[in-house]
Amino acid sequence: MPLRLRPSFLAALLPSVLLASCHNGPAAEPPLPPGALKAVVAEPGTNRQKLARAVDALFTRKDLGETRAVIVLHDGKLAAARYAPRYNGHTKFLGWSMSKTLTGVLIGLLVSDGRLRLDDAPPVPRWQRAGDPRAEITLRQLLQMRSGLRHHEKAEPVYTSSEVRMMVLDGRDDMAGWAEAQPLDHEPGRQFEYSTATPVILSDIAARVLAPGGSPDQRRAAVDEFIRTRIAGPLKMASLTPEYDRAGTMIGGSMVWATAPDWARFGEFLRHKGSAGGVQLVPKAWIDFMETPSPRSPDYGAMLWLNRASGNKDRKVLFPERGPRTLVAAVGHLGQYILVAPDQHLTVVRLGKTDQDDRPALVGALADIVALYR
Questions:
Q1: 127 is a domain residue
Q2: How many domains does the chain have?
Q3: What is the pLDDT of residue 234?
């Protein structure tokens, strides 16, 4: 005889069945923390709640290190801005290797002025001695990190690493002199080698052009004035502050400071292909060159990272599998980022302190923000 369930039994069972089916669906997102939504403007160009949650994750997730500032600009307008305690829009942040991109623009201005040529040997006297194979190095190769000069970035133990030796050990008083004295490990142009020493050489080249034969003070003053009048002033980057070594060379690979809003202005300058306020400050063709893959590294242009696969399983700087191919970035030590996505009309700045082991998670969290803008 078949079992017949009484209505009272079914009524008692029904809530449990419904509850179980609810648990099988997607989990509800936790409520936004107080203040998270305040960091996002009313109309940020995407879903406001989702953007607030993505920005909040950068400050609250334990696997991303310490985020100190985030700015999101969409169509040139502020979409989100948030700072950790003790930081604000007037705090100067060290760009670390984002400084390299600024150095690339500095060289672009000198090329556009006709004072340097991309495919000529740059004015480095040490390399011009008879029989020196470094005389074959071109400005283009330096900008694309394929000079062939000996360099070992992030070597272990740390005191053997080239950038450490140059900046704080035997090269600290004349960093460009130390970098330019390195022998060739490869034929110029043949191999990509990321190098913090290279933009210091480029900074020395700029000083030699702007203050030929000048003293350290004269070199410093000439480069400072050029950057102030040709970059910082037109971009309204009043906080932009480069550091110099004792020889008067800008430490163009790592030691440029600016506030988060000013780093965002620099990103917008790149997004607008070298223009600001409707004025073309550096030729569009120069920014196109900076965004063109190096012949020896598809994920690097000229002092600028590209959102493309590197072809090197040990190097993944951005997120080519998720983000737009046209996205470019200035990237610095400890997780400094200026992400520029022209097709999305987007600039994202993240500043903080994230160790290398947590960088993949941080990159993923930044990709989450970019993905909100289609």
A1: yes
A2: 1
A3: 98
Which pLDDT score, from 0 to 100, does residue 317 have?
97
Between CA 302 and CA 115, with CA 252 as vertex, the angle to 5 degrees is 65
- Domain for residue 313, yes or no? no
Segment 41-95, tens digit of pLDDT: 999 999 999 999 999 999 999 999 999 999 999 999 999 999 999 999 999 999 9
Q: 136 to each of 108, 120, 128, 184, 188, how far by Cα in Å?
A: 20, 9, 9, 11, 7
What values do phi and psi take at 131, rounded to 5? 85, 0
CATH number of the domain that residue 294 is part of = 3.40.710.10
Q: What would the mean pLDDT of 97-124 be, rounded to a whole number?
A: 98
User: Residue 332 is inside which H or E element, if any?
Assistant: strand 328-332
Q: Residue 290's closest CA among 270, 275, 260? A: 270
Please give the backbone phi and psi of residue 337, each rounded to the nearest 5 degrees, phi first.
-140, 135
* pTM, two decimal places: 0.92
270 part of a folded domain: yes
Q: Which domain holds residue 114?
A: 92-306
